[in-house]
């Protein structure tokens, strides 16, 4: 079960040069459903234009057989969304499709632009009309600016106006373009099908499902253009800008365990975090159990290094729906109980090490620990395979406000008392970074450390764009 205190961001998928590109894109999006469950969409070339189909819901809700049969196009981009900027409504479903002086263009975005509201203010003052409350739309307005269109190649110039996290897919009627921001916050990779078709995906698990061969990651600050001439690469980032701030939370929680992200396998990284957690926080207990599903990998590592048997304390339901869309808190609480039920006979009378991937608000974690206690666990030792989350994220993870984070302004002892567990220990920041490839300087750890790679010197809110929409009623 996903951690209901952390909401997902988005997943991208695109195919160039295959007659079944629409079907392949649906499969690629399905493989990345864990990255976004609010909406799904595709844009496909058709003749000299582009057609779009998008809607609210899961991939299999949005794309039925009759829709897919009408779209047999060789160039397609797709998107699954969780709204990290802008609310959950059909207008914000991606890819977004626009008509402008340069023709038609579709855009799909994974990440968060911290300067989107400032740019939107500027463009609205010059008479621009926005159709969505998504930060992604500002990219189109930048591209359509006459002084930008006059440049021989406007895209690199436009990208250097953006601040924050962005992995992007663009679709023109004759080409597909993939972009990754200069810091490389979000993953994006390049693959190849047996017929030579090119595939772009947020995660390698999406390549696996269609038997595409992984070739390489899109590099931070790189633009990849795929057209009839093949695959071309150019770097757009200014040489003085930092070139690495990969989101560590992709490896802690977001990415699928089967994926290779930032040069390493996600499952193996999480297992190593569990091993390091056992070294830093050993415990005398009878059984190690994970909180499903993300902590399973870390629990395996903890069990192996700690010399304790690995068991199962919770059972999960895959049919209970998504608790975060329930309208009332008590309904969300019931949905969580349905999804995650204690196996009483497994934990009764046992001293437990409970491994969790992260603790955000702490409310659902407290409920899980209480359920274990009620089922007869004699001791509960909570071990968290990441450091305390004390700071907000502005780069594509929808954490609660900083004031709602349980670790903000509280000691570990305070959190332990609130959760009503016998002991609580987190993986250290250095310990977590020792488990990942590429060195600690390659990762963004702002949610743990407060060190933001991109300065956030003005208020950033998920619903900042809605404030623009309703500003007229406040005047």
Describe this structure as you would to a colleague.
The chain is α+β, with helices and mostly antiparallel strands and 475 residues long. Helix content is 30%, strand content 25%. The protein contains 19 helices and 23 strands. The strands form six sheets. It has a seven-stranded antiparallel beta sheet with strand order 3-2-4-1-10-9-11. It has a six-stranded antiparallel beta sheet with strand order 5-6-7-8-12-13. A four-stranded parallel beta sheet has the order 17-20-21-22, with helices on both faces. β9 (189-192) and β10 form a beta hairpin. α10 (266-280) crosses α11. 51% of the residues are buried.
Keywords:
single chain; 475 residues; Glutamine Phosphoribosylpyrophosphate, subunit 1, domain 1; Rossmann fold; 2 domains; 25% strand
Short description:
The relative contact order is 0.13. The chain is of the alpha+beta class and 475 residues long. The protein is built from 19 helices and 23 strands.
Question: How much strand content do the residues show?
Answer: 15-25%
Name of the top-level CATH class of the largest domain = Alpha Beta
Between the first and last Cα atoms, what is the distance in angstroms?
44 Å
Helical content band = 25-40%
What kind of assembly state do the chains in view correspond to? single chain
What Rg, in angstroms, do the CA atoms define? 23 Å
Instruction: Give the CATH H-level superfamily of the largest domain.
Output: Aminohydrolase, N-terminal nucleophile (Ntn) domain
Shape: globular
């Amino acid at each position: 079960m996903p951690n209901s205190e952390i909401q997902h961001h988005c997943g991208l998928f695109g195919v160039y040069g295959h007659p079944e590109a629409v079907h392949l894109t649906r499969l690629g999006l399905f493989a990345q459903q864990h990255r976004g469950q609010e909406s799904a969409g595709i844009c496909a070339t058709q003749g000299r234009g582009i057609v779009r189909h998008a809607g609210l819901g899961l991939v299999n809700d949005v794309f039925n057989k009759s829709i897919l049969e009408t779209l047999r196009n060789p160039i397609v981009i797709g998107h699954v969304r969780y709204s990290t900027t802008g609310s959950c409504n059909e207008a914000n479903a991606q890819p977004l499709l626009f008509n402008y002086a340069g023709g038609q263009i579709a855009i799909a975005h994974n990440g968060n632009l911290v300067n989107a509201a400032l740019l939107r203010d500027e463009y609205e003052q010059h008479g621009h009309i926005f159709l969505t409350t998504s930060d992604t739309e500002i990219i189109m307005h930048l591209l359509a600016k006459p002084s930008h269109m006059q440049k021989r190649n406007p895209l690199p110039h436009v990208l250097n106006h953006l601040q924050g996290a962005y992995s992007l897919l663009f679709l023109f009627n004759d080409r597909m373009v993939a972009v990754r921001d200069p810091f490389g916050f979000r993953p994006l990779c390049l693959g190849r099908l047996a017929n030579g078709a090119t595939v772009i995906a947020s995660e390698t698990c999406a390549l696996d499902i269609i038997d595409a061969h992984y070739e390489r990651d899109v590099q931070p600050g790189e633009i990849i253009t795929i057209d009839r001439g093949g695959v071309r690469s150019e770097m757009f980032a200014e040489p003085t800008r930092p070139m690495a701030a990969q989101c560590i939370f992709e490896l802690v929680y977001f990415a699928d365990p089967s994926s290779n992200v930032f040069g390493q396998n996600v499952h193996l990284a999480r297992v190593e975090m569990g091993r390091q957690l056992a070294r830093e926080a050993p415990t005398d207990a009878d059984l190690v159990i994970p909180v499903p599903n993300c902590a399973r990998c870390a629990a395996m590592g903890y069990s192996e290094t700690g010399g304790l048997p690995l068991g199962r304390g919770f059972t999960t339901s895959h049919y209970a729906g998504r608790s975060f869309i329930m309208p009332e808190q008590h309904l969300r609480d019931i949905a969580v109980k349905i999804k995650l039920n204690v196996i009483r006979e497994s934990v009764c009378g046992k001293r437990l090490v409970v491994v969790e991937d992260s603790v955000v608000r702490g409310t659902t974690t407290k409920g899980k620990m209480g359920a274990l206690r009620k089922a007869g666990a004699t001791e509960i030792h909570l071990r968290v395979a990441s450091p305390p989350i004390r700071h907000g994220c502005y780069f594509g993870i929808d954490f609660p406000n900083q004031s709602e984070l349980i670790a903000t302004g509280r000691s570990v002892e305070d959190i332990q008392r609130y959760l009503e567990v016998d002991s609580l220990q987190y993986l250290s920041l250095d310990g977590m970074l020792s488990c990942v490839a590429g060195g600690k300087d390659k990762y963004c750890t702002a949610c743990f450390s407060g060190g933001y790679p991109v300065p956030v010197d003005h208020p950033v809110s998920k619903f900042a764009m809605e404030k623009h929409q309703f500003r007229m009623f406040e005047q």
